[in-house]
Amino acid sequence: MAPQFPSIQSFFQVKSSPSSKEHQPPSSSPSATPAGDGFSTEEVDAVLHPTIDSSWTPTQEYEEQEIGELDAGPRCVTFIGRVVNLYDQATPSKAPKAAKGCIKLIVADNTGALTVRLWYANMDYKLHLGQLISVWTPHLSYGENGTLAPSSAPLFTSIFPERDRNCHFKSHENSDEGVQCKKPIGYKKGQPLPGLMTLQNFIDGGYDVADGKILVCVKSIGARTKVENKRGTTERINIGLFDDTAEATLTLWGSTTASAVPWRPSHTVLLITNPGWRIDRRAWISVTANTHVDVDPLITDAIWLRSFAQRLTKRDHVNPPFPDGVFDTEAAESSQVRILYRLADIDEFARAAPKEKFMGFLSIIIMDLHIVTNFKRNMLMCTECCGVPLYANAVTAKCKQCEKYQPLRINPRILGTLADETGALAQGKVLFSDAAWEQLLGRSAFQLVSSSAEVLRYLEQRLLFLRVSLCFGWSLYEEGGEEVGRLCVWGVRV
Ligand SMILES: [Zn+2]
């Protein structure tokens, strides 16, 4: 059977004219095309509203190569990489067929980097740092003196896909799974990245190191502002950066500012090679022609820095839910063996075998209570909704963010320090189940919030310095992997 060739129509797109019959102004209008000037509507349209045809069928073989393998000379090659530097230079011209500008890109994969001079006329290439792109080109050259290509990527190709059908440019917007070309040049697993230093070391003189690298996490993303300069107005954005040693500000200019749109504070990690810098009272980082920026590189140090950043932002839940199904309380209740722990034993056990789950009993004294104080502050019960703590002297309360009613649990901070002969548990750090609260307070949550201040004062006095037995369980993680890491009290024997 003959191979399926596309029909002739697939090579010619049906172009719809914006000035079709429905939209055509009346012939008396001065903007209407005078009838009979010799040009058809299609011909006029093609000049006034050029359609950008981004489809491309290569006419010859292009050899797929890694960037590190590429060399200068006339040869049809194709390569894939990520944008690590971009600079858009407008070249205003009145000539209708001339390019309107050139975007200078540095594209890198795991093996090397090269400069792409991408000329454009009508195409609006929406490019950003970290973008995965493919280039097809028939020629590569070496830039001399850093004029056509920066010294960090001297090999370059100059392409004008809109005019030259031998070259093509494609950005992988939807097909980018975030894995390809994510390792920086020179990275070997298990080995430190050459030239990588902490931000503090960079500030303290490391900026003099050739090919010095800093690995930083985005802390904040400023607003895009317009700045006047000699060449007109340009956009600027300041990005707060940090690692575990210091902080800095990265300034992005012009078309590079769009790169920061998908970045997320405390999540996005940037590996910046050869950063531009200015150090006064704080460190100012910039992207120069030789700078490479790897966005979220797949390296162990980046994973560590991101988890470091997340730990910093993680705030304790005001009232974490009691972990259901983690502890077999029925078995513990009926067990013949009842182990009485002291607080020091628990500390020792948890440190020696952090992944071990264990259950037992504790005999502690309640050193102070804050029932009346929390009652007066309208904070006897609490929970969190929409990331915001929610307090009330009621069993439910309305979240101010989502306007939904949420069930509240007893505020763990009504209990102060709990101590035995070997140690103490800080205020609010123990997780009580609803049943344990009821056993301790001798009343349900609803009865607690319905009580008068007088009754609560009496309750507080009765519980103060009382020795109680706590049935507890300890586990670092829930079944699903959620962190518990607290003493969980499922029963109280007063
Ligand atoms: Zn809410």
Describe the SSE topology.
Layout: H1 41-48, E1 63-64, E2 73-90, E3 101-108, E4 113-120, E5 132-142, E6 155-159, E7 168-171, E8 196-197, H2 199-203, E9 213-221, E10 225-229, E11 232-242, E12 247-253, E13 269-273, E14 276-279, E15 283-286, E16 292-295, H3 300-313, H4 329-334, E17 340-341, H5 343-352, E18 358-366, H6 371-376, E19 381-385, E20 388-392, E21 396-398, E22 405-407, E23 409-410, E24 418-419, E25 424-425, E26 431-432, H7 434-441, H8 445-450, H9 453-463, E27 467-477, E28 483-493
Parallel strand pairs: 1-2, 4-6, 8-9, 12-15, 17-18, 26-28
Antiparallel strand pairs: 2-3, 2-5, 3-4, 5-6, 5-7, 9-11, 9-13, 10-11, 11-12, 13-16, 14-15, 18-24, 18-27, 19-20, 19-23, 21-22, 24-25, 27-28
This protein binds zinc ion.
Task: Kindly describe this structure.
- Residues 1-19 have a biased composition (Polar residues).
- This protein has nine helices and 28 strands.
- It folds into three domains: 63-171, OB fold (Dihydrolipoamide Acetyltransferase, E2P), CATH 2.40.50; 196-313, Nucleic acid-binding proteins (OB fold (Dihydrolipoamide Acetyltransferase, E2P), Beta Barrel); 329-372 and 411-493, OB fold (Dihydrolipoamide Acetyltransferase, E2P).
- The termini are far apart.
- With 494 residues, the protein is α+β, with helices and mostly antiparallel strands.
- It is elongated and about 100 Å long.
- The strands form five sheets. Strands 8, 9, 10, 11, 12, 13, 14, 15 and 16 form a nine-stranded mixed beta sheet that branches.
- A hairpin with a 4-residue loop joins β11 (232-242) and β12 (247-253).
- It has helices at 41-48, 199-203, 300-313, 329-334, 343-352, 371-376, 434-441, 445-450, 453-463; strands at residues 63-64, 73-90, 101-108, 113-120, 132-142, 155-159, 168-171, 196-197, 213-221, 225-229, 232-242, 247-253, 269-273, 276-279, 283-286, 292-295, 340-341, 358-366, 381-385, 388-392, 396-398, 405-407, 409-410, 418-419, 424-425, 431-432, 467-477, 483-493.
- It binds zinc ion (ZN).
- Zinc ion binds next to loops.
- Zinc ion is lined by residues 385-386, 399, 401-402, 404.
